[in-house]
Amino acid sequence: MSEASYDVVIIGGGPAGLMAAWQLRDLNILLVERTHRLGGRLFSLPRDDMWLNFGGHLFPAPGSYMRNLMLEIGLETIPIPGNKFALWHQGKVVAPASVSALPLTLPLSLFERIALARVGLKIKAGVRHWQQATQPLAGESSENRRARTARFMSDHSFRAFLGPMPARIESLFRAAGQRSAAELEDISAGVGLTLFGMVWAGKGDSMAVNMMGGSGRLGEVMTERLGDRALVEATATSLEPRGRQTAVTFERGGRQETVSASQVIVAIPAFAASRIASSLPEPVRATLANVRYGPFPSMAVRTNETKPMPWDDIYAITVPGRTINMMFNHSNPLRALGGAKRGSSFMVYSGGKPAAEMMRLTEDEIRERYLSDIFQLYPEIRPLIVETKVQKWSPGNTYRPAGFDFGPVVRYSDRTDTDIHLAGDYFSEIGNMETAAGTGYEAAQRARRRLATLGGQQRAA
């Protein structure tokens, strides 16, 4: 029996792979995804008029790759009206009007207040520098722009950039920095400023909306759109050049299958891409193998209250000194739509060292520790909880350590003579869905151009 042949095989059904598949939907394509669903870390479950979110939830501005994809497949966004700068401090949730007000709002000693203002001003100046440095240059490719911005302040850690500070102030910045899935010492100064830049971008905040119905809607709708051109529970195991084709082997249902493709887009975690794509140049494989990923356990919580609660006007809370780093109120955007209140939906997660410790525990143990922290923030929530669900993300979020040279992958992606194309959130200094979608789009365009070139060569021959 002859094996199936495709124009393009796409490996990975996260935002990068889905973007590539959508861009190439007019061709003969096949997408293979290791898990039981599409969407990657964009995962949610519906609950009446709410949803439980477990991963990515903040979507970029109109005109971005991700928002364009959402628009084209009919997904709606919902603005976030709630406070994004709330902080748990000395047993109380403090919700200032802006992050700049924290030195004046928090109960601190004079020494701590001055230190917080000093470090905050240093970060804000760094963010302005980051915003200037990340502006696109005329004629610059997206890959080279990402590589250039990733080199911004990449030679020292974010902890070294922040400098000395009192213990309680360091705890605050450590909790905020752990959103990167790593510790302050692990990430470069550029990564830290990128992280804060996403939050402190002002009124033009690039991450200001949720997806109506939950982030998992992306995978659900793409499953419908792609139909039998997307295979789930199919684990790619090898890519082998075979003349002008590439043999793609994957395991599915306990059986090994092989198909051939003119072009292959590898949109899976970097270390997994290094393992299966043995024909990639050795410097590229070595770079991919050394990309860092941090652990990321999360938990969704649903409550059943029917009256106003103190968390209704808050979207995000940073939680220093506890196991959880952040608590998100994903029902907050729905409050602005009106209607009778029927409970709330939250997500909490850990990053850095607390996350590494949590990943070694059972789901029940994680649940108990997370609930203990939640009860510290809001004791009144205890009798209202009707559902909890833990999600262990492995691998978790990707981040760029100080001094890491990603150049071999960038130079490979600039080539026009390759039939295996790379895409994923690891192309930027801190992983995010927009980078994933953007690299998926660019990989699709490279594959299409390569198909046209090879077609022309074949006709000439």
Question: Could you explain how this protein is built, in words?
Answer:
The chain is an alpha/beta fold. Helices cover 36% and strands 23% of the residues. It is built from 16 helices and 18 strands. It has helices at 15-23, 65-72, 102-105, 110-133, 142-150, 158-162, 167-177, 189-199, 217-226, 270-276, 282-289, 332-335, 352-358, 363-377, 407-413, 433-460, and strands spanning 5-11, 29-32, 44-47, 50-53, 77-79, 86-89, 92-94, 209-211, 230-231, 234-242, 245-252, 255-266, 292-303, 316-318, 326-329, 345-349, 385-399, 420-422. The strands form four sheets. Strands 1, 2, 9, 10, 11, 12 and 18 form a seven-stranded mixed beta sheet that branches. Strands 7-6-14-15-16-13-17 form a seven-stranded mixed beta sheet. The chain has a two-stranded antiparallel sheet with strand order 3-4. The longest helix has 28 residues, at 433-460.
SSE diagram, text form:
Elements (H helix, E strand, L loop, with lengths): L4 E7 L3 H9 L5 E4 L11 E4 L2 E4 L11 H8 L4 E3 L6 E4 L2 E3 L7 H4 L4 H24 L8 H9 L7 H5 L4 H11 L11 H11 L9 E3 L5 H10 L3 E2 L2 E9 L2 E8 L2 E12 L3 H7 L5 H8 L2 E12 L12 E3 L7 E4 L2 H4 L9 E5 L2 H7 L4 H15 L7 E15 L7 H7 L6 E3 L10 H28 L1
Parallel strand pairs: 1-2, 1-12, 2-9, 6-14, 12-18
Antiparallel strand pairs: 3-4, 5-8, 6-7, 10-11, 11-12, 13-16, 13-17, 14-15, 15-16
